[in-house]
Amino acid sequence: MTHVETRHAIHPDHARGMDTAQLRQHFLVEGLFVAGQIRLTYTHYDRFVVGGAVPDGAPLTLDAIDETRTPSFLDRREMGIVNIGGPGRVEAAGQGWDMANGDVLYLGMGAGAVTFSGGGRFYITSAPAHRALPHRLITVDQAKKVEMGATETSNKRVIKQFIHPLVMESCQLVLGYTSLQEGSVWNTIPAHVHDRRMEAYLYHGMAPESRVLHLMGEPQETRHLFVANEQAVLSPTWSIHSGAGIGEYTFIWAMAGDNVDYTDMDFIQPEDLR
């Protein structure tokens, strides 16, 4: 079973007047991981798609959806898949890849139907592509690791880059994830925006009672969302994306837009936030 929800792009002037329920309706993605289902959110931010697939004992196949009006979902798209569950398997284009927890699979344009099986919980990201590039499995050990932050500022973290120019080539999809070190709570400090690219965060690895306070909005018109485990946040190009969590958490970041330069950020220092 495949379920698709559409989210339209929101202008910052519109976002300023939203109450809590409206902010959550437009920017928070809940219920992505449902046993026996593929659930997708098709956004009008760079036509980016986020989703989840949970096979639950029977294979699940993603092929055509009405929202793209193409014979197969990946006819004009590329895809990044992160396994946040147990050992699983993904099959596409006549090939198969066994994925451990934390592994990332890149599927290039034209890969055809994608089948998920095993004990995985698969986080799906996808963006339009202009050419076919090789499919590739990137294991945790193959990711580029970057350590940032400090204990003194409560933002010591390890960034693992997977679909990234320093690791492999993609059309516009950039993906990796960040884990906070013990005693640190803040991610992505100082905050930033990048008008050239949208971004989506998936928070996971959290205790059921934990929450992340995710900051969003224009730098001088900040808003917040309280985010639970395995929930995603859509971040428009005009919005900051930062947060602090209660307890341990990891967030998967995925971007699409005009460039694949991970360092292309316009930083906003804490004293300039409102």
What does this structure look like?
- The chain has 274 residues and is mainly β.
- The protein has a single domain, classed as Jelly Rolls (Sandwich), CATH 2.60.120.
- The protein is 5% helix and 45% strand.
- It contains two helices and 24 strands.
- The chain has helices spanning 12-16, 20-27; strands at residues 2-7, 28-29, 38-43, 49-53, 60-62, 77-83, 88-92, 95-99, 104-107, 114-118, 122-128, 136-138, 144-148, 157-163, 174-180, 186-187, 191-193, 197-204, 212-218, 221-227, 231-235, 242-245, 250-257, 266-268.
- The strands form five sheets. Strands 1-3-4-11-6-9-12 form a seven-stranded mixed beta sheet, with no helix packed on it. A seven-stranded antiparallel beta sheet has the order 2-21-18-23-15-14-13.
- The longest helix is centred in the N-terminal third of the chain and has 8 residues, at 20-27.
- It is globular.
Describe how the helices and strands are arranged.
Elements: E1 2-7, H1 12-16, H2 20-27, E2 28-29, E3 38-43, E4 49-53, E5 60-62, E6 77-83, E7 88-92, E8 95-99, E9 104-107, E10 114-118, E11 122-128, E12 136-138, E13 144-148, E14 157-163, E15 174-180, E16 186-187, E17 191-193, E18 197-204, E19 212-218, E20 221-227, E21 231-235, E22 242-245, E23 250-257, E24 266-268
Parallel strand pairs: 1-3
Antiparallel strand pairs: 2-21, 3-4, 4-11, 5-10, 6-9, 6-11, 7-8, 7-10, 9-12, 13-14, 14-15, 15-23, 16-22, 17-24, 18-21, 18-23, 19-20, 19-22
**Given the structure, what is the number of helices?**
2
- What's the architecture, going by CATH? Sandwich
Terminus-to-terminus distance: 43 Å
According to CATH, the fold-level topology is Jelly Rolls
| Elements, N to C (H/E) | EHHEEEEEEEEEEEEEEEEEEEEEEE
Regarding CATH, which class?
Mainly Beta
Rg, nearest Å: 18 Å
